[in-house]
Automatic annotation (TrEMBL), chain A:
Residue span of region Disordered: 1-20, 78-99
Identification of the protein by name: Conserved oligomeric Golgi complex subunit 6
GO biological process: intra-Golgi vesicle-mediated transport; protein transport
Main location (coarse class): Golgi
Localisation: Golgi apparatus membrane
Organism phylogeny: Eukaryota, Fungi, Dikarya, Ascomycota, Saccharomycotina
Record organism: Australozyma saopauloensis
Function: Acts as component of the peripheral membrane COG complex that is involved in intra-Golgi protein trafficking. COG is located at the cis-Golgi, and regulates tethering of retrograde intra-Golgi vesicles and possibly a number of other membrane trafficking events.
Quaternary data: Component of the conserved oligomeric Golgi complex.
Membrane topology value: Peripheral membrane protein
Residues covered by the Conserved Oligomeric Golgi complex subunit 6 C-terminal domain: 277-739
A family per Pfam: COG6_C
Residues covered by the Conserved oligomeric complex COG6 N-terminal domain: 144-244
TrEMBL record, chain B:
Species lineage: Eukaryota, Fungi, Dikarya, Ascomycota, Saccharomycotina
SMART domains the record matches: RAB (SM00175), RAS (SM00173), RHO (SM00174)
PROSITE patterns for this protein: RAB, RAS, RHO
Record InterPro entries: P-loop_NTPase, Rab, Small_GTP-bd, Small_GTPase
Identification of the protein by name: Uncharacterized protein
CDD domains, A to Z: Rab6
Subcellular location: Endomembrane system
Listed Gene3D superfamilies: P-loop containing nucleotide triphosphate hydrolases
Chief localization: membrane
Organism: Australozyma saopauloensis
Gene Ontology terms, MF aspect: GTP binding; GTPase activity
Membrane association type: Lipid-anchor
UniProt KW keywords: GTP-binding, Nucleotide-binding
One GO CC annotation: endomembrane system
């Protein structure tokens, strides 16, 4: 249904003017009417649809529409009159009432579904026939509307009746149910009364049950606590059995670990108010753990004391497990390992003792029972030491193998194994040193001691490669030191013996040959030094090496010189020098081929040179004395030392003041010269016949004669210069020829 | 020894110790303790002391060196002097891989072995790892009968073997 907006018409218009529109709030809300009336749009659409359907019919029937419009206008006019008074009285109230009504009519309380149903029903009814009558304003219309009303009401009642009929059955059921419920309520009340009576009657029992229940809960709690306690703080019977009586295996260690865990847990029990239980448990567990530890320790000790038992792989694995366990407690592990070290050390010492003493060899303990014992070679100290150290080497190798096999696969114990081996082998260090010391100390032969020393050096070199045998190697090093000292001692003793020996002094005979003791001395020591390949003697430090060289080179010379001093009265000066030269020559010839003694060769050469000069001076003086020229030689030298580069007679003018410088004396000397010089060469060589080194002889003779020739040449020139007469018959060349000096004039050029 | 060959193997200093455990077919285990002696002259004086305790002497020569073969007799004499007949002497010709340079025939060595009453003769090549295992296996097999009377049945047998190496700086099997 559309609301048509009325337009005002002028009053003087022929057409009747409709009443002005009511100022109801509906207009102002027309925009949101759709929102306000939720069904408005639906209604509008529905009407539009109907209107559209009817438009075509209506257009044709415009007259009917016009009629309807007129009727409406009339109706409005009629309605307007009585409403004027009221509208004038209270238009606002009227508009509000209308608005309310419209709202109520247009916005029914029932929903769309109901509305749809209503319209459907209306459509289903054939009101179309009476539609014209319904809108008729007359009696027919009124009757039609009343009929419609009555029809609608009848239908409504019919509908209500059908709806109510649906409820009749449930109502009936509900009534029946209500009766039953009432009966039930009664029954409940009765039961309730009975229960109340029963409750009152059984209240004591209930309270007792409650008490028992709570007691049960408490007991259950205690039980679960005790079970948990037992699981946490005690070993079961089987575990105790395993710990006390079972063999050591993985199960044993599991039980032991659990026992130890319990011990740790028990500590918390000691902190509670009553620690009695904790103490008791701790004591019991401690007892089990200590017994188990004792069992492990005993097993380890027994196994390690009997190495052969460990050839059984299972036993070895058990030992490894035990050692793993003991490694958590270093004290216990050390105790076991110390025991092992002691056992092995004792075993090694017994074997070593049997090897060097030859006792208990038949008891089968020796690992080399069918080999010749070391002591068999004790008659030969060098072989004995070599055999002894070879035997020690085999012990070291065996022991290293044993320990390696024992701790195979135990990475954590590798250092411990090394330490054990070191300690075990270390136990042999002192006996080895003592035995070597005994042999070295007892030995008095230089060569034997040196051979022992060489063996010790070689073994020291080999043992150096075995890090675990450091103790033994230190003993060998100490023994080497002792052997070195022994060599030095033997040499010193030999020299001391020679020094104090009367026989050695008597050995200084007139043949001027070196004494026997020095020959023996060098024949002993030099072969030893010759075989050495080290840079210094016995690889000594440089200072000790020098000291040793002094011992074998300088000290024998000192001893000899001391002897010579004692016997000096028996020899003239030349013999003493020849003696010394022969001695030095011997030493030089012995020392020179030895590389280690090369330092001393230079010193010996210097000493020899000095002695050679002394011998040369003696020879010159002897020749001068034979020629009665000694005084002239001395005077000349006093004026200016004779130098073959400066043979100027004018320097020696002062000689004229000397009383000896006269013709008679010089003439006499000339006669002696002529008598002596022809045989001088042979005489000199014969006096030096006891000098061993011919080079020395030649050197001494030649240089002394050269000096004589130089003096003769100078003196001859002086005589000719200051006495104005050549009193010396022979020329310098003559003298040179007679003395066997070649090219004597080549450097004797007088000024 | 250890199935390896080292061209740069350092020369033996003094006497080297090696050990090898042999597992024989009859479940017997023999541990061989081997003393490898140095070829240097200065260590020669030590060798007799090691022969003293040895049960087997493995005397090696170089098949490409007649000189090394010639010195075998001296070494065998040294061994016999120390141990008499209480030692097994095994003659080993090494460097069998150098057949083209051979100076000593296998027949010569066989004859020598028979002459000195050696246990057996074998040619080996440590470089090519030829016959080395066989050598030690044969030595191990020889030993139980050797020491049958003295060794307890179930005890691990420890046998010392002495190796005389007369060849010149040959590579060592290790």
């Amino acid at each position: 249904m559309d609301y048509i907006a009325f337009e005002p018409f002028p009053e003087n218009d022929a057409l009747p003017s409709p009443q002005p529109s009511l100022s109801i709030p509906l207009k102002s809300n027309i925009e949101n009417l759709g929102a306000k009336l939720s069904q408005f749009n639906n209604l509008k659409q529905f009407l539009q649809l109907n209107a559209a359907d009817n438009i075509e019919e209506k257009v044709e029937d415009s007259k009917l529409a016009e009629k309807y419009a007129l009727l409406s206008l009339e109706q409005l006019t009629k309605d307007q009159k009585p409403s004027d008074s009221s509208s004038s009285q209270d238009p606002l109230a009227r508009s509000e009432a209308l608005s309310t009504r419209l709202s109520r009519g247009l916005n029914p309380t029932f929903g769309d579904a109901s509305m749809r149903e209503l319209f459907t029903r209306l459509e289903s009814k054939s009101y179309e026939e009476s539609m014209d009558h319904l809108v008729d304003a007359g009696i027919e219309g009124s009757i039609a509307r009343k009929n419609l009303r009555s029809q609608v009401e009848a239908e409504l009642i019919k509908n209500y009746a059908s709806i109510l009929a649906d409820y009749a059955k449930p109502v009936k059921v509900l009534k029946t149910l209500g009766e039953r419920v009432s009966a039930l309520v009664v029954s409940i009340n009765e039961t309730k009364d009975l229960l109340e009576k029963d409750v009152a009657a059984t209240s004591d029992l209930m309270s007792e049950i409650d008490a028992l229940n709570s007691e049960k809960k408490s007991i259950d709690l205690k039980k679960s606590l005790l079970v948990a306690f037992r699981q946490k703080f005690t070993l079961n019977e089987y575990e105790q059995y395993v710990l006390e009586y079972n063999d050591i295996n993985q199960e044993f260690f599991d039980a032991l670990l659990r026992a130890e865990k319990i011990n740790e847990d028990c500590l918390i029990l000691l902190a509670v108010d009553n620690p009695k239980q904790g103490r008791s448990l701790l004591a019991k567990n401690n007892d089990l753990v200590s017994k188990a530890n004792q069992k492990i320790t005993t097993f380890c000790t027994r196994s390690l004391s009997n190495i052969y038992s460990l050839n059984n792989r299972e036993r070895l694995n058990t030992l490894h497990m035990c050692l793993d366990y003991l490694s958590r407690s270093p004290e216990k592990l050390n105790s076991v390992l110390e025991s092992f070290v002691k056992t092995r050390s004792a075993s090694l010492l017994d074997e070593f003792s049997s090897q060097i003493n030859g006792n208990n060899l038949s008891d089968g303990k020796s690992s080399i029972s069918d080999s010749r014992p070391v002591y068999f070679s004790s008659h030969d100290p060098v072989r004995y030491i070599a055999d002894l150290l070879a035997y020690v080497h085999s012990i070291v190798a065996n022991e290293a193998e044993t320990v390696k096999n024992l701790f195979e696969g135990e990475q954590d114990l590798s250092q411990t194994a090394s330490k054990i081996l070191e300690q075990t082998l270390g136990s042999l260090a002192k006996p080895i040193k003592a035995e070597i010391d005994r042999v070295v100390s007892a030995e008095t032969r230089l060569q034997t001691t040196c051979q022992i020393m060489t063996h010790l050096e070689l073994y020291h070199l080999m043992f150096n490669k075995i890090s675990d045998a450091i103790g033994i190697n230190e003993s060998i090093a100490a023994a080497m030191l002792l052997a070195k000292e022994k060599v030095e001692l033997i040499l010193s003793n030999r020299l001391a013996a020679a020094k104090t020996s009367n026989l050695a002094r008597l050995d200084l005979s007139s043949d001027l040959q070196p004494p026997e003791w020095i020959i023996d001395f060098y024949s002993d020591i030099l072969p030893v030094l010759d075989t050495m390949t080290s840079a210094t003697v016995f690889d000594m430090p440089e200072a000790e090496h020098k000291k040793f060289l002094e011992l074998i080179v300088d000290q024998p010379i000192s001893v000899f010189e001391e002897h010579l001093n004692f016997e000096s009265s028996a020899f003239d000066r030349r013999d003493l020098v020849i003696f010394k030269l022969n001695f030095l020559d011997l030493i030089t010839s012995k020392v020179t081929p030895i590389v280690l003694l090369s330092l001393k060769v230079a010193e010996l050469v210097l000493k020899t040179k000095s002695l050679r000069q002394e011998a040369q001076e003696i020879q010159l003086q002897e020749l001068l004395r034979s020629c009665s020229l000694t005084d002239f030689y001395n005077v000349t030298n006093m004026i200016f030392p004779i130098d073959k580069e400066l043979l100027d007679p004018s320097i020696y003018q002062a000689i004229t003041e000397n009383k000896l410088f006269n013709k008679e004396a010089i003439a006499a000397a000339n006669e002696d010269i002529q008598a002596v010089l022809p045989t001088a060469l042979m005489d000199s060589q014969s006096t030096l016949i006891k000098l061993n080194n011919p080079i020395d002889v030649k050197e001494i003779v030649t240089s002394s004669f050269e000096q004589f020739q130089v003096f003769y040449t100078l003196f001859s020139a002086i005589v000719t210069e200051y006495l104005q007469e050549p009193l010396l018959s022979w020329s310098s060349d003559d003298v040179g020829t007679m003395l066997g000096i070649d090219d004597s004039d080549s450097y004797l050029i007088l000024e | 020894m250890y199935d390896t060959f080292d061209d740069q193997y350092a020369a033996t200093i003094g006497i080297d110790f090696l050990s090898k455990t042999m597992y024989l077919e009859d479940n017997k285990t023999v541990r061989l303790q081997l003393w490898d002696t140095a070829g240097q002259e200065r260590f020669r004086s030590l060798i007799p002391s090691y022969i003293r305790d040895s049960h087997v002497a493995v005397v090696c020569y170089d098949i490409t060196s007649k000189k090394s073969f010639a010195s075998l007799e001296k070494w065998v004499n040294d061994v016999r002097m120390e141990r008499g007949d209480d030692v097994l002497v095994v003659i080993v010709g090494n460097k069998s891989d150098l057949g083209a340079k051979r100076q000593v025939t296998a027949e010569e060595a066989e004859n020598f072995c028979r002459l000195i009453q050696g246990k057996f003769f074998i040619e080996t090549s440590t470089k090519a790892n030829h016959n080395v295992k066989l050598l030690f296996r044969r030595i191990a097999l020889c030993l139980p009968e050797f020491s049958e009377a003295t060794e307890a049945e179930n005890r691990l047998e420890t046998v010392e073997v002495h190796i005389e190496n007369t060849q010149d700086n040959g590579g060592l099997c290790c």
